[in-house]
Amino acid sequence: MNLELKTYPCSVCGSAESRKLYDVKGFYIVQCAVCGFVFVNPRIPDSDLYKMYSDHYFTSASEGYGYKDYELTSNLRIKTFEKWISDIEPYLSKTRGAVLDVGCASGYFLELMRTGGWEVEAIELDKDMIAKVKEKNIPVSERPFEEFTSSKKYKLITMFDVLEHIPDLKSAFAKFHDLLDEDGIVALITPDFSSAQRKLFGKKWFQYKPQEHIQYFTPETLSRAIKPYGLQVIHTSASGQYADTGFLLDRLSRYNFKLLRLIAGAAAGLFGLKNKFWYLDTGSLFAVIKKK
Ligand SMILES: [Zn+2]
Questions:
Q1: How many A from CA of 144 to the centre of ligand 1?
Q2: Distance from the CA of 261 to the center of ligand 1, in angstroms?
Q3: Which helix (H) or strand (E) holds 121?
Q4: How far is the CA of 206 from the centre of ligand 1 (A)?
Q5: 15 CA distance to ligand 1 middle (Å)
Q6: E strand or H helix at 246, and its extent?
Q7: 192 bridge partner residues
Q8: Separation of 217 CA from ligand 1 center, angstroms?
């Protein structure tokens, strides 16, 4: 993919002043000089980003972005969603109502919620995934969240690994406020720039995917960013996902732990761990947001 990059102001405060932190894969990770928010600049222009997300994104890893094959590990994805639902539950309205999952992929999370008695709705841009969601009889909007309109109010809006992809954060935050019911919540998972993993791995942190992960929050910058929109963060904690041994070994290779990978690979073979799975910290932030 050979695209012209474009320079944008900070999506949180609008300032054009920033300082460079890292050079990652030909992109700069920068920090806003005014509000401290971390983002990629210059970056792939909005229109090209949306093209990327709509065209075989979930099988596009060979292009340097997206997933190798999202459906290949569907059992782990479902396990991960079950874990995330148990994380969300304490903050969720006791009265069931409408749930909107933004960037729903093939809709596993919404299937689980529907079984739990919730009225489910999706937003997805990828054509392959939209077809799957429709087969599951889940209503799906095929336009970006920033353009989404509804007369409905939602008890839950979810963004799992989505916020870091959104170019126009101000519109997204205003949309949260418009769409949330009085006792509704937004539950999101996004890379945490203040995580121990980011600090440990520096510019090698696997969450640096500067083509598509263009915004990097911390609990503090998220809290400040949403405040002007009548929203508040009511909970933050670390988050992860279920992964199999192969994924774990792949991650070790990516961090250049060659020796460790070799040992772990041999051990996995010896002890029959190949098909085992683990809940791995991904240096992600789980945040729950409410109206003020
Ligand atoms: Zn800023």
A1: 23
A2: 39
A3: strand 119-123
A4: 24
A5: 5
A6: helix 245-254
A7: 217
A8: 12
Pick the CATH number of 45-202+213-241+285-291 from 3.40.50.970, 3.40.50.360, 3.40.50.150, 2.40.10.350: 3.40.50.150
C-alpha to C-alpha distances, 101 to 157, 191, 200, 211, 268, nearest whole angstrom: 6, 18, 32, 23, 36
Predicted structure pTM score: 0.92
Query: How many whole angstroms from 18 Cα to the centroid of ligand 1?
Result: 8
* Phi, psi dihedral angles at 98 (to 5 degrees): -90, 140
Q: Ligand 1 centroid vs 274 CA: distance in angstroms? A: 45
Q: What is the pLDDT of residues 194-234, one digit of tens each?
A: 999 999 888 889 899 999 999 999 999 999 999 999 999 99
All structural domains of the chain with their residue ranges: 45-202+213-241+285-291
- Output helix, strand, coil percentages for the chain, rounded to the nearest 5: 40, 30, 35
pLDDT at res. 274: 65
Q: How far, in Å, from the CA of 13 to the mean position of ligand 1?
A: 4
Q: Quick one: what percent of the chain has pLDDT higher than 70?
A: 96
End-to-end Cα distance, the chain = 43
